[in-house]
């Protein structure tokens, strides 16, 4: 098995693009430089380059830890980038024939089979307070600092990425995206778009999703990467 892949990115409502992405035959990744922190575009680029260098045979959670080290090491050499950070989502078709993923921050990762399943959880203050039982979902959605990141690549010396493992099944579609996409397209709109694009190839899928987000008034950079699990040609 391998992945049939494509990626697409747009400025959205920003003047510069702080998103980075990678798409290979067994590895896909998306990083979104943290806004409000310096050099977000540098952090996202370094993270994705580190993941790509680690390759698909490295467990994604280990690749995320390496990316964290790379971002922090760079920041120590360049004062202009001190404090930079980035979100990161990774999915890889491992040598064991299973799909493995890791995530840090609030970028999104999901899988589409006959339904759509979310594979990542946001590392935000609002989500953490709800998960810990301190707030209800409604209260978390209204919290003034609900979007504040509590975990991201480069934020702390030790990164604890979320992770998952599942069987790789031909026909499944993995979508990794920055929150610029999911902020512009609510859950219902995204599900409708994915359903309508189920038969489309990865290139058409990502280009359509990014276009729809921009048309919906995306205020942030919009990046989407798709990996379809396919069989090796015989």
TrEMBL record:
The keyword Hydrolase applies. The keyword RNA-binding does not apply. Its EC number is 3.1.3.16. CDD domains: PP2Cc (cd00143). InterPro entries: PPM-type-like_dom_sf, PPM-type_phosphatase-like_dom. GO terms for molecular function: protein serine/threonine phosphatase activity. Keywords: Hydrolase. SMART domains: PP2C_SIG, PP2Cc. Residues 4-229 form the PPM-type phosphatase domain. SUPFAM superfamilies: PP2C-like (SSF81606). This is PP2C family protein-serine/threonine phosphatase.
